[in-house]
Each structure stands twice: as C-alpha cells, then as structure tokens.
Design brief:
The chain is an alpha/beta fold and 425 residues long. It is built from 17 helices and 14 strands. Helix 2 (42-56) packs parallel to helix 6 (109-122) and helix 15 crosses helix 16 (344-350). GO terms for molecular function: ATP binding; DNA binding; hydrolase activity.
C-alpha cells in the first residue's frame, strides 16, 4: 500500500561494535565455556557475546549512546525515524545499559540467559542477578534449568581461574538476594504485598545487579494484569538498575518492532536451521459449527497419532479467556465421550484445562510429563499467554478457537508452543 514503509526487522537491530579494548574485556578466554554451554548452537554464543560486549567492554554508557551510534550510520533507521530524537524517545528503558535479545521461542533462551548471568558475575561487573518472568510456570522451568546448569562440573572447569563468582546460588525471592546469587522470580512476587524479599534486597539500590527479563514483551505491551503493568515501572523505578537485558521471541509493540534489539535469531532462520520444528496450525473456520470443528480437529489429531506412533502427539486448543476455555473443554469432553464411547472420567483424563485459575492449579503439574506415553493427556485447553514457558515437545496441532485470543500484535497473529512455532494469520 502506498505510503506505508515496510522495514525488515533485521535492518533495525542495533549493532554493538566489536573493536573494543581487549584489556578491559577478554572474551577469548570464555570460548571453551561457551562451547560447553551452547554446543553447536552458534546463535546462542553470538547472543551472549553481544550482550557481554555491550555491557562490559566500557564502550557504552547507555542504550541511548548505542542508538545514536547506529542512527548515524543506518539509513533504514534514519528513514523510519526522521530525527535521532524520535528514535531515542521510542526506547523503552532509556539511560540504562538496557536491550533485548530476540530469539525464536524454542531456540534455547534459558542457555543465553544463564551464560550472560554467569559471565557477568564471574568477571565482577555485577554482584548478583535478578531474573524476572511473567508467570509461575515459566519461573519453575527457568529455576530447574538454572539449577541443572549451575551444578554442571564440566561448565565450571572452563571458568577462568581468576574469576570472582564461579558457583552462583540459584534462589527465589523468599530470601534476601546476596552477592553471588541468581534470583529467579515471576513479576507478581516483586511487589510489597507479596511478602517477598525484593524490597529488602534492594534497600541500598540495584546498581550492582543485572536484571534479566524473560518474555520482556509483556513489560513493553499493554496488559490487563495489574502486576504485569508495573513490570516496566519496576525496571525504571527507585532501585536504580543499570544493567537490564530482556529476551523474547515476540519483539513487537502492536505492529512496531522493538527499538532496542541487540541481537536477532528469527523464527524463519530457526526453522531453516532445523532448531525448531513446524507444527500443524488449524485456522478458525467460520463455516463449521462447534461439533464439526471438533470433528475436524479430532481427525487431524488421529492422523498425527498414526503418523508418529512412536511419540504421543498433543493438540493445544487456545481461547480468549479462562471462562471460555473451561466451557470449551467441557463441551469437548462430551464430544470425546460420544466419539470414543468412553465414560466422563476417562474423557476428563484425556483433556485438561491449564490456566492461572486456582481450580486448574493441579493441571499445571501434569504439564511436566504430558509428553510421556504413560500420561493420558492428549488435549490441552488454555489461554494464549500461558503457552509461554511450557516444556511440551510433542505439540503437533494448535487450534486458535477465537481470533481475540491471538490479537497480541497486528504484525503477526498467532501463538507459539515451546518449540518456537509462530504463525501469521
């Protein structure tokens, strides 16, 4: 359409210069550590290095300086923002060493987050790390992964001998965050009424702290959740945080790509590289009634079960809110009872609802083993936000039951499972 400027996201990623003073930062001595941590996933190593150089090389005082440096040489940025000041005003966390790493979901953001945290603690740039995320589900998965990584003897062997902190303690905000700690918490726990240790931990400020943020797009976008709304406010608030890095696979505010992305590994690249798999996506069909839609989804699911008999295919059905997915699951259970001639108890074992509602809390525990053959669960009903952080590898079909469940941005409409699949409507 005439008058609309179409810009490739990779063209407005802020480039961090690599010609820094090696006497201030020697990243070469971390090569073996990164090889051990990331294996052959070069994009993870690159993302970690970019973040470390940006924050620890001494070349940058804040994201403002990086943005100005890029604006001076990037004609695409100049085309998008008619004046340098317009770019600066668009930055979400100005006047700090802040930035975002855009990694396709399913490409291993947790390894990148851990690598950044360990290296910056080890070289003494920061004394402690606070890792924030949007939900209890993601918090649990991150903590389990970090505990596993922190216990790996092979990783510790490659940390340079002179380093300050080699054995970070992985904690939550039930205890005060001390030097050498990596505290992992969901954003709902950082406020006074939760009884967490956050206020006590930062009574003297947070200038010695690295704040990592998983799924940072929640903090940047409008939310109906009162605590999510405060996320950005917390980062910019009284604690005087200086070092702030976010990760996401959805780096958009409505249809605008973030202005503070330091590194991008796109979904298309991840698919081309074989890092994530393509999953069947079933679009909304206005021409079918509910029973006919159930039948179509059921037939697809059965086909996957036949094609991948060695695995246990799972179908994810996503609605707009807790009430709608609860009702939808009840209707689907009735459908299963008729279709498979089974009783209600058996059908309820196959289809579960996973939301933040207390009545569904018991189902959260089932997510960690739904991939196993022994699990009866084949059908998961949820709301779109809760698809983040699930460690479910066998999702073969995803069904957006209502459009409004996916209107998170106007540049892409869809959802993603933990293998990093996103779709455009």
């Amino acid at each position: 359409m005439e008058g609309i400027l179409k810009i490739e996201e990779s063209n407005i990623v802020l480039k961090v210069k690599t010609n820094y003073d090696p006497s201030k930062l020697n990243l070469n001595e971390w090569d073996k550590y990164l090889d051990c941590l990331c294996g052959s996933r070069e994009y993870q190593k690159e993302a970690i290095k970019v973040a470390i150089i940006y924050m620890a090389s001494g070349e940058y005082e804040s994201i403002n300086q990086l943005a100005q440096e890029n604006y001076a040489t990037n004609t695409v940025l100049q085309q998008k923002y008619s004046k340098e000041i317009n770019l600066i005003h668009a930055i979400q966390l100005p006047n700090k060493l802040s930035g975002v790493i855009d990694l396709a979901t399913g490409s291993g953001k947790s390894f990148v987050l851990y690598g950044i945290a360990q290296i910056l603690l080890a070289i003494g740039l920061v004394k402690r790390v606070l890792l924030l995320c949007p939900s209890v589900t993601i918090e649990r998965e991150l903590r389990n992964k970090f505990i596993l990584l922190a216990s790996r003897v092979d990783l510790k062997e490659y940390i340079p001998l002179w380093c300050v902190i080699k054995n970070p303690r992985i904690i939550d905000a039930n205890v005060t965050i001390k030097s050498g700690d990596i505290c992992i918490e969901n954003i709902h726990a950082v406020y006074e009424n939760t009884g967490s240790s956050i206020n006590d931990s930062f009574k003297n400020g947070g200038s010695d702290t690295l704040v990592l943020n998983d799924e940072i797009h929640h903090a940047y976008n409008v939310s109906s959740d009162k605590d999510i709304k405060k996320w950005k406010q917390f980062l910019l608030g009284k604690n005087n945080f200086k070092y702030i890095i976010g990760t996401t696979g959805t780096a958009y505010i409505e249809n605008e790509y973030f202005t503070d992305v330091l590194y991008r590994y796109s979904l298309r690249k991840a698919i081309d590289d074989g890092v994530v798999k393509m999953v069947e996506y079933v679009a909304k069909d206005e021409g079918l009634d509910q029973n006919a839609k159930f039948q179509k989804i059921y037939d697809n699911h059965e086909e996957f079960c036949r094609m991948y008999s060695a695995m246990k295919p799972i179908t994810l059905i996503v609605g707009k809110d807790i009430k709608s997915v609860s009702n939808l699951c009840e209707d689907f259970i009735e459908f299963l009872m008729r279709k498979e001639n089974i009783n209600k108890e058996v059908a309820e074992g196959k289809a579960i609802v996973v939301t933040s509602a207390s009545k569904h809390k018991k189902n959260l525990a089932l997510l960690s083993r739904v991939d196993e053959k022994e699990s009866k669960v084949q059908w998961i009903f949820s709301v779109s936000m809760l698809t983040e952080g699930w460690d479910v590898k066998n999702v073969f079909q995803i069904v957006p039951w209502e459009d409004r469940a996916f209107n998170c941005t106007s540049s892409w409409k869809g959802i993603k499972n933990t293998r990093g699949i996103e779709w455009s409507a």
